[in-house]
Design a protein that fits this description.
26% of the residues lie in helices and 27% in strands. By secondary structure, the protein is of the alpha/beta class. The strands form 5 sheets. Strands 1, 2, 5, 6, 7, 8 and 19 form a 7-stranded mixed sheet that branches. The protein has a 5-stranded parallel sheet with strand order 10-17-11-12-13. A 3-stranded antiparallel sheet has the order 14-15-16. Helix 1 (15-26) runs parallel beside helix 2 and helix 5 (156-166) packs parallel to helix 6 (185-193).
């Protein structure tokens, strides 16, 4: 067990955490980044990436995160392969505990632990991930231009995904297990008006259909009616799971202000939490956009705000002398 004494600690190694690391390292803060449960974040399970600025050709998500990490390390970021399990924010500096048993003492902390899409738990979600199965329409919708897709869910996320995909796909079939939607009324009205969207009520997904061939993908889904018990197959080239996301913020529960879904609350237009010196960036904060580029932007903001925080602390210390 080791005790690490740090000026700034970054938790999470996705786009937000690595961007924060690049900026804090360049500001001579000598950051230590704790990689977390999924080094590289959600981008490591994303195949083709076409919407990250700066690349005219399709790039791979894992490669992009490898490049971000290499850049962060090249400017002085140190990496720790650990998972933060608790934080004591009642005193300064912050005291954090890792799954390894190591203790991290830090004057400032940037939380960039991200969020994970909720899945249905079907075998086909793993089999066809990156080959027709997705949890992000804005990330992958482009690949289904002029094709038929299925969206599963009944909340705001599902309706937003269905409406977005309807501008790209030839047909969108929304499958919901109940006979009413949970989404906001105005969004439901837009959904019901759209001629390219069909809603199938009272049904659950029984199986994602597709070929076992290496280059083949989704071909449809078998649905099961909860009221009649009837099962039928519907054709589709894409299958989008839109039943929400779970932020990876369990370690900070009760230690920083969160909303009822577990997303960390920050001051509007900033990455500042209700704890001075504690910042949050990326998908553990952002439940709306959830893009690598917006996560990177928030990581940049957190780093710059941390720099200002230290400057204000030095000013206060100087004034007290």
């Amino acid at each position: 067990m080791t005790e690490h004494r740090e000026k700034i600690l970054i938790i999470g190694s996705g786009a937000a955490g690595l961007t924060a690391a690049i900026y804090t390292a360049r500001a001579n803060m000598n950051p230590l980044l704790v990689a977390g449960l999924q080094p590289g974040g959600q981008m490591t399970i994303t195949t083709d990436v076409e919407n990250y600025p700066g690349f005219a050709d399709v790039i791979q998500g894992p490669w992009l995160m490898e490049q971000m990490q290499a850049q962060a390390e090249s400017v002085g970021t140190r990496m720790a392969q650990d998972i933060i399990t608790s934080i004591d924010g009642s005193k300064r500096p912050f005291v954090l505990t890792g799954d390894t048993g190591d203790t991290y003492i830090a004057d400032a902390v940037i939380i960039a632990t991200g969020a994970q899409a909720r899945w249905l738990g079907l075998a086909g979600e793993t089999t066809f991930n990156g080959r027709g199965v997705s949890a992000c329409a804005t990330c992958d919708g482009f690949f289904f231009r002029g094709k038929e897709v299925i969206v599963v869910g009944g909340g705001n996320t599902a309706v937003e995904e269905a409406l977005y995909l309807a501008n790209i796909a030839s047909k969108v079939t929304l499958v919901h297990r109940r006979d009413t939607l949970r989404a906001e009324r105005i969004m439901q009205e837009r959904l019901f008006r759209h001629k390219k969207i069909e809603i199938i009520w009272d049904n659950v997904i029984e199986e994602i259909l597709g070929s076992d061939e290496p280059m083949a993908g989704v071909e449809g889904a078998r649905i099961h009616n909860l009221k009649t018990g009837a099962a039928r197959d519907i054709p589709a080239d894409g299958f989008f799971v839109a039943i929400g996301h779970t932020p990876a913020t369990e370690a900070f529960l009760g230690k920083v202000e969160m909303d009822d879904e577990g997303y960390i609350i920050v001051e509007p237009g900033t990455t500042r939490t209700n704890q001075p010196g504690l910042f949050a960036a990326g998908d553990c904060v952002d439940k709306v956009f959830r893009q690598a580029v917006t996560a990177a932007g928030l990581g940049c903001m957190a780093a710059l705000e941390a720099e200002k925080y230290f400057a204000s602390q030095e000013d206060q210390a100087a004034a007290a002398e």
